[in-house]
Amino acid sequence: MTGLVPPRDAVLAAVEEAAYTDHVPVVGPLEGQVLYLIARLARARRVLEVGSATGYSAIWLARAARAQGGSLVGIELDARRQAEAERNLARAGLADTAQIIRGDAFEVLPTLTDQFDLIFIDLVRQLGDAERLRRLYELTFARLVVGGVLVIDNVLHGGEVVEPLSPGGRAADALNRLISTDRRLISVILTVRDGLTVALKVAE
Ligand SMILES: C[S@@+](CC[C@H](N)C(=O)[O-])C[C@H]1O[C@@H](n2cnc3c(N)ncnc32)[C@H](O)[C@@H]1O
What we know:
Layout: H1 10-21, H2 28-41, E1 46-50, H3 56-67, E2 71-76, H4 79-91, E3 98-102, H5 105-108, E4 116-121, H6 124-127, H7 130-141, E5 144-153, H8 167-180, E6 185-190, E7 196-201
Parallel strand pairs: 1-2, 1-4, 2-3, 4-5
Antiparallel strand pairs: 5-7, 6-7
Helix pairs in contact: 2-3, 7-8
S-adenosylmethionine binds at residues 25-27, 51-53, 56-57, 75-78, 81, 104-106, 122-123, 126.
């Protein structure tokens, strides 16, 4: 399937290559294309990404937002990665479209006043704690418009959610159960890569 993703342009290919070399856990081309497609299908103008690393998925999503005349805000804890993400977005010609805030999502999210059409969470594996994931879910849910799309990566936790043993696996499992029973959303887990939750917010 990855072989069928259209070739990436030089900038995106370079960011992808550098991420693999430096062991930055990016979504990769197949999921990048899925994210881009979901954002385009949703006609998302205002996109929020939680966990931007060096800006790889942010480039995919910012390009989709730009196609609607919109923009992307990302949040990244690591200062070096945040600086690299800003550089990569500038190289991709997206400096005016995307901004990556350096900070802890738990501190940054409550300060945001904007509402978003699409929110992508990419730090399930980094948190690995059910209570923190639940809180992150509520914080992001509050920033999503009704009719907006929530996308969450790594919800299968390497397949461990089938029989969770580690705290991280149990946390991902708890998040999946929380979301699948939340009547404010219509959701499904796509078995793309490490599992991608896609959910439509239907009520506050
Ligand atoms: C899986 S990586 C993101 C990859 C990126 N979305 C991509 O595909 O290009 C997760 C990132 O979340 C960051 N992170 C971890 N905890 C965080 C927190 N509490 N707030 C914001 N970012 C955090 C990590 O530094 C890491 O770069």
